[in-house]
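User: Second chain of the day. Same drill as before.
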Amino acid sequence: MNTPEEKTAAPVPRVLCVDDEPSILSALKRVFRPHGFTVFTATSGQEGLALLENEPIDVVISDMRMPEMNGAQFLEQVFAKWPATKRILLTGYADAAATISAINQGKIWRYVAKPWNDSELVMTVEQALAHRNLMEENARLTQLTLSQNEELKGLNASLEEKVAKRTAELAKALKSLETAHTQLRGSFLATVQLFSGLVELRGGRLAGHSRRVADLSRRLVEHLGIADADQQDVFLAALLHDVGKLGLPDNLLNAPFNALTPQGKTEVMHHPVKGQQLLMSVEQLANAAKIIRHHHECLDGSGYPDGLVGLQIPLGARILSVCNDYDALQAGALTLHTHTSLEAQQYLQKERGRRYDPEVIDAFFAMLKEEAAKRPLELQLAPAQLKPGMVLTRDLTHADGYTLLPAGRVLNADVIGKLVALEQTEKRKLLLHIRNDVSSSVLRDKQPEPPPRTWKEVVMSSERLKPGMVLTRNINHKEGYLLLARGSMLDEGVIKQLREFERINGEPMTVYIRMESR
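Assistant: Same format as last time:
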């Protein structure tokens, strides 16, 4: 066995030539020497197998006709042990059976006939080397792909875990936000009602006035169908519209406005500005404060404090003006004459277009008409005329402003007795509004029928959501836990988190929203 002719530091092709004739081996070495190949030689199949055990070989060129082990047998064993090594058969006789045997058993790459053409032989070896390199690169890339796929599976599993964890955290945050928002909104409204109650604690003509005006305003803005945020501003303004009167003396509070002296009127006319100044420091009440400032403006510019004309007056102030005066007329706070409901409506109609916005007046009368059609027939009775089983159609309010009995309450003998005693103790007549379609023989309490639904449900995507919208159904995660409860009022922060949750989760979100019927 000969040693390799040359060794270089750089990887070079390694070729093994096997032939039992030394002259053939020498000729092969001369062919490959100029091309930089490392050439090994062996004179028999056994010698070639021994060399392959110790040296990595890229290409084997074997003669077919050799003693003891022919080329087909030799190449068969090479394929069995070193399948990546390329195999070329060199044959000098036309034996089709032998060549077929070499192809089938040894899985040869090519066969070359003796005598060979040097250039063709070199080209055949180079093609074999190129194919071997291609196969090795393909195997390497396949292994790399498998490895990367396994790594990607691990990353995906980790990502899914992180997404699930982040989703759970987001759901928890949304729930906490919902709770905090509900508590904050409840605390805010409680504070507003507290301030409103401070005004009504002054008693007299102010008792219950702010609460009644707020209820009227709430119903009117719902009837008009204005934006939810604007509805809330009007409602808050109605609750607090008289907060600027806290510093006024009792003689000004208890006298009708039209009966005051010029000096007294001037002092009372400062209360809208004082009310705005008291509330401007509270950011959530800034819009309500502006409404309060202008709720005594008149459409023709004759109002106060700024003498605004027409549409210069904020819509909320035009709404509050109608509701405020309607109640004040019936409470005797505006004129010496205490108006009935019908008389108050006639007064508003008379001032339509001069003092009040015609559109607001028309909507107000339409609302009253609709409510009257839905309201059961009623009687006004004193406590001594009451019988067990009768049902209140309106809240019974004390002169100091608090509720004695809610609408829908079924009276019994004990309650009637207490009302009679209260009237005698306070020496003040009570009038109760009683349903006229219920038999006096009904002695058990009844739950009032719920009002008909005046809104419809609309399906929206998260992109169409706006602050102030109210959910009609729960928003649940696909795994079943609650994200946001029905009845929740959306704000910019919650909408932003819902859109971010939708983006992270990769699925579109369907939201059911309450839309007021027109």
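The two ends are 104 Å apart (CA to CA).

User: Great, on to the next one.
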